[in-house]
Specification:
Blueprint (H helix, E strand, L loop, with lengths): L1 H24 L19 H19 L8 H35 L12 H50 L9 H8 L3 H21 L5 H33 L4 H31 L6 H28 L13 H7 L1 H23 L3 H35 L9 H23 L2 H35 L5 H10 L3 H29 L6 H12 L2 H6 L3 H29 L7 H27 L7 H31 L7 E4 L2 E8 L3 E5 L5 E5 H6 L3 E2 L8 E9 L5 H14 L10 E8 L2 E10 L5 H19 L11
Antiparallel strand pairs: 1-2, 1-5, 2-3, 3-4, 6-8, 7-8
Helix pairs in contact: 1-3, 2-3, 2-4, 3-4, 5-12, 7-8, 8-9, 8-14, 9-11, 9-14, 10-12, 11-12, 12-13, 12-14, 13-14, 14-16, 16-17, 19-20, 23-24
């Protein structure tokens, strides 16, 4: 596959390179001295036939598969085929554009037969038209090949799903039945022959790499690969660790970067070593189809096992406990230390044997036996790990270490692993070997995904905390550039880390369900792209490039609205003749309209087409009918209050027994401040639908200070009336017009009730005025020897 890809790229570069250069370097044709244009090179019919033959071979290989694992390699090859077709199509586009420009310069052939055009121009137009037609036809053929390959990937997914379902429900002998192990100890003649054929191909490949004249170079490559995988890995790990220690700031970022660097060093050196080994074996003669299939699957198994060991070493960090990211006790970490290597080594050996069986086409009995052995050994390792971990934690708790009890997440992981082992044991005993192997593989895959994404999320969190920290140069630069406070920087760090970790968590969940052991990075990206770029998102026209535009539009829009509102509140509106209530209403209305406009621009930048939002509108209409009607009603009422202004900020109102000053009119509710400085939140719809008393509407409202006093029957009413009027008249807050007055309210056996009334300039000072008047009236009544009446039966 790799050599075919290299050959295809070589053909594309050789054939298309000059044309691409000519497409960018060519000048428009001179119509005065135009000659016949030289033909532009392109993709020949032989190249198209080679692509079609390659696709047909892939289809034939897929149609001959008989188990789930055999489809993983062909799926990668189809993806590579699509990439090759895309490269060829992209290389032809400059030619198409150049020919179109040249034809547009020449223009259409004249229809006037009286003045025919020059022969050389007509010949040039005919030549260019012929070349453009060839390029268009080639592009159409490439598009058809790509569509056929895309349909083939969909077909592969359906086949894999069906094979997986049939394999998981397939029941064979139990592992306790001797018949289950018979094919391993006494294989059939066909299986022996296939095993010998595989060994013969291995021998031939080795002999070709060990031919005279090639032995030194082969030995050098193999030794170099071994050195890189052993010594090189340790040196890379040590160098990256020193880099993180001396270059990364002290704190959490240094710790997480050390763990990430440890895993990265192992992966990078393993990849280089594998490429050197592959080149040593195939630098002259490509691998046979059987060995090529095995090579691809073996590479996937190696990467999976390397991920197990590298993540285990990075997260456990037994040599440097202070670098450890998860909260794991030292005793538990030391107990877990040998298990990642043991599990990876066991899987590498067993999976390699199983892939040999698949590649050589051995019988299903051999394949099932291999799956059974894999499930048994992996299950034994995991059960031993769980038992030893539980034993160590129990000993720590008994010794008084309460932190060893673990947290909720650790308990969930332990429970899931235990249930998986129980299911695997039951499946093996009842004959569902494929189901047991599937459960154990999924458990190992879950460990790889959860550990990997946990490491990435920790690096992202610590990186954001460092980037926005006001103590470091990056945070200081952002603070100076954006003009924000330290608190805002901290909020930006939390939000950025939160959104990033949420995105990684979503990708982790998707990866957990769309991948598995042996899944390549290309397959993962393709599956994730299929889910995230599904039909629903394609209908909304949401693409990654639009997401960046939408985020920028949202951030810039919010910043502009806040800046304009500050300008309105602090500079423009205070210099107008409008009252403060009107200014506050206009500022709030501007903000609401501005935020709505920003949302519309954000959706537009996102590429959302409003014709495709009918389902959202339908969902919202149902939601409004059931649960959002009150919110919508209050929102509309808020807009009415801000436009019609029956009440405004600063008015003294009374509604439903609540009386106070309006502090703020929001979109959903209005804030009313009572006399005790407390705030009452009243929904806007109540201010519209209920009877409301606006005391200060119009700006000329007066307050009424009324006191009702009861005197004994033997008083002189005129004397008391004169005393009350004098008290009101002499008070500084009582208005002369309307003048205060005293009214005879009631006559009862208990006494005479007199009511005195006066007007003040504002309703807000009524309470203080009445208090002052009562103090003065009682003082003057005491001086005149007049007492208030006592109720009958009172002391």
């Amino acid at each position: 596959m790799r050599n075919a890809l290299k050959s295809l790229i070589f053909i594309a570069v050789t054939l298309l390179g000059p044309s691409v250069v000519a497409a960018f370097a060519a000048d428009p044709p001179d119509t005065a001295n135009a000659g016949i244009a030289a033909p532009l090179p392109g993709v020949s019919a032989t190249d198209l036939q080679a692509l079609q033959q390659r696709l047909d071979e892939l289809k034939q290989q897929i149609s001959s598969t008989n188990n789930y694992a055999q489809l993983e390699g062909p799926q990668d090859r189809v993806q590579s085929f699509i990439l090759d077709v895309d490269r060829l199509s992209a290389s032809l586009l400059p030619q198409q554009a150049q020919l179109s420009v040249q034809l547009s310069v020449l223009g259409a052939a004249p229809a006037d037969a009286i003045a025919p055009e020059q022969a050389d121009i007509a010949a040039q137009r005919a030549s260019l038209t012929e070349q453009k037609n060839k390029v268009d036809t080639t592009l159409k053929n490439l598009a058809a090949l790509k569509q056929s390959a895309t349909d083939l990937i969909t077909h592969i997914a359906g086949i894999r799903r069906n094979l997986l379902e049939s394999e998981l429900t397939l029941r064979t002998y139990s592992i306790l039945n001797p018949s289950f192990w018979t094919p391993l100890f006494d294989p059939s003649p066909d299986d022996r022959q296939r095993w010998q054929a595989f060994g013969e191909q291995i021998r031939q490949t080795g002999a070709q790499a060990w031919e005279p004249g090639q032995r030194f170079f082969t030995t050098l490559l193999v030794l170099l690969a071994a050195l890189i995988w052993t010594v090189g890995r340790r040196l890379a790990d040590r160098w990256l660790a020193q880099f993180c220690i001396h270059r990364m700031p002290e704190g959490r970022l240094r710790r997480s970067s050390l763990a990430f660097a440890s895993a990265l060093a192992t992966l990078a050196t393993t990849a280089i070593a594998l490429e050197l080994l592959y080149y040593a074996c195939t630098r002259h003669v490509p691998l046979s189809p059987m060995l090529a299939t095995f090579s691809d699957e073996f590479e996937k198994a190696v990467y999976a096992c390397v991920m197990i060991t590298s993540l285990g070493r990075a997260l456990l960090s037994t040599e440097h406990p202070s670098w450890r990211l998860p909260s794991i006790e030292d005793e538990v970490a030391l107990t877990l230390k040998p298990f990642p290597r043991l599990l990876a080594g066991t899987l590498l050996v067993l999976v390699t044997l199983i892939q040999i069986s698949n590649a050589s086409g051995m019988s299903s009995q051999i394949v099932m036996a291999g799956r059974g052995i894999t499930a048994v050994l992996v299950m034994a390792i995991v059960v031993t790990l769980l038992v030893r971990t539980a034993r160590v934690r129990k000993a720590l708790v008994a010794a008084g270490d309460t932190s060893a009890a673990g947290n909720t997440l650790a308990g969930v992981i332990y429970t899931v692993a235990s249930l998986s082992m129980v299911i695997s044991i039951i499946a093996l005993l009842t004959g569902y070997v494929s189901l047991a192997r599937f459960v154990t593989y999924e458990l190992v895959w879950s460990y790889i995904v959860l550990a990997g994404f946990y490491l990435l999320m920790q690096v992202l969190k610590d990186g954001c905390a460092f980037l926005f920290s006001p103590k470091h140069s990056s945070g200081k630069a952002l603070k100076q550039l954006l003009g924000v406070s330290d608190r805002r920087l901290e909020q930006m760090a939390i939000l950025t880390a939160g959104f990033g970790r949420a995105g990684l968590l979503l990708l982790g969940v998707i990866t957990l369900f769309v991948g598995g052991i042996g899944t390549t990075l290309g397959q993962l990206l393709a599956n994730i792209g299929t889910i995230l770029g599904g039909a629903g998102l394609r209908k909304l026209n949401i693409v990654p490039g639009h997401l960046i535009n939408a985020v920028l539009a949202l951030m810039i829009g919010i910043y502009l609205i806040r800046a304009l509102r500050r300008w309105l509140d602090n500079e423009f509106l205070p210099k107008t003749d409008m009252d403060p209530g009107m200014c506050a209403s206009l500022s709030t209305l501007f903000s609401n309209i501005g935020y709505a406009t920003v949302i519309l621009f954000t959706l537009s930048s996102l590429g959302v087409q409003w014709t495709n939002l009918a389902w959202i509108v339908s969902a919202l209409s149902v939601g409004i009918g059931f649960g959002l009607q009150e919110i919508v009603k209050n929102f509309v009422s808020g807009l009415i209050l801000l436009t019609e202004r029956p009440v405004k900020v600063g008015d003294l109102i009374s509604i439903s027994g609540v009386e106070g000053d309006i502090r703020r009119i929001n979109v959903r509710a209005t804030e009313i401040q009572l006399s005790d400085r407390s705030i009452v939140i009243v929904p806007n719809s109540q201010l519209i639908s209920q009877n409301l008393r606006n005391v200060t509407l119009g700006g000329s409202a007066q307050g009424v200070a009324t006191l009702e006093l009861m005197f004994p029957l033997d008083i002189d009413p005129e004397q008391v009336k004169s005393l009350l009027l004098d008290t009101y008249t002499e008070h500084e807050t009582i208005l002369e017009k309307p003048a205060p007055f005293v009214r005879f309210s009631k006559l009862t056996p208990d006494g005479i009730t007199l009511t005195v009334t006066g007007y003040v300039g504002s309703p807000r000072i009524v309470g203080v005025t009445k208090s002052d008047l009562l103090f003065e009236i009682l003082k003057r009544l005491g001086a005149a020897g007049i007492e208030l009446a006592k109720p009958v039966g009172g002391g």
